[in-house]
Amino acid sequence: MNSELFNSIPPQFYEIFLFVSVFIENIFPPYPGDSVVVFSGYLLQLGKISLVPLILIILIGNLASAALMYFFGHEVIKFFLTHIKSDTLKEIFSDDHMHRTHDWFNRYGLFTVIFSRFSAGIRFFVAIVAGMVEMHFVLFIGAFTIATILWNVLLVSGGYYLGNNWEELLSYVQLYSGFVALAVALVAVAVVVYITHYSDLKKPKK
Q: Distances from the Cα of 113 to the Cαs of 58, 79, 102, 138, 181, in angstroms?
């Protein structure tokens, strides 16, 4: 963008656009929210947005959408348990399997929430699962807040120090996110297999 275009856009537009972007990214993973945050670092360097509003916008936008996904997950499980008809889904959402998932999340949920925030494609699902297994909401929000601050400090700092070359960071972020998403997907498959199959072997035979 040239300087004339930057000067013609009111600062409030950038703030609104940033808030909408960080809110959407936790609801619709394909949306490039991290790219917008990197760009906001460049805007910070240009003086088009101030540091305090930038921090608050990113934090509030992320927490609002994460909380929405948490309560969505909480209500989804209620809906399935009430209206479910498929035998396969009944097995997946059985009391036994949900109890095991709940136990696993009690052990590793805090770390999972923090880690998930460092990958765009995962944070969406983890927030929903946290709601489904009724992870303590304060713990969920606390972990998500810590991770949000850490991750976005990296993105904003990258955009700030790279300046006009801020887009160079995006390819590395995409590569990193893809690698993390693959790793977590493999772990998730292993957890599901454990919950649905391996634990059944421990049941006493009748």
A: 17, 24, 14, 12, 14
Does residue 186 register a pLDDT over 80? Answer: no
Rg (alpha carbons) of the chain, rounded to whole number: 20
Range scoring the smallest mean pLDDT among 43-57, 117-131, 143-157, 172-186: 172-186
* First-residue to last-residue Cα distance in the chain: 71
The mean pLDDT of the chain is 78
Domain ranges within the chain, ordered by starting residue: 3-202
Q: Where are the alpha helices (DSSP H) in 47-136?
A: 51-83, 87-92, 95-116, 120-132
Closest to 120 (Cα-Cα) out of 167, 77, 65:
65
How many residues comprise the chain?
206
Helix/strand number for the chain, H first, E second: 9, 0
Name the residue among 70, 90, 72 with its Cα closest to residue 80.
Answer: 90
Residue 16 pLDDT: 93
Q: Is 90 exceeded by the pLDDT of residue 156?
A: yes
User: How much helix, strand and coil, in percent to the nearest 5, is found in the chain?
Assistant: 85, 0, 15
pLDDT at 200 over 60: no
102 with 134: CB under 8 angstroms?
A: yes
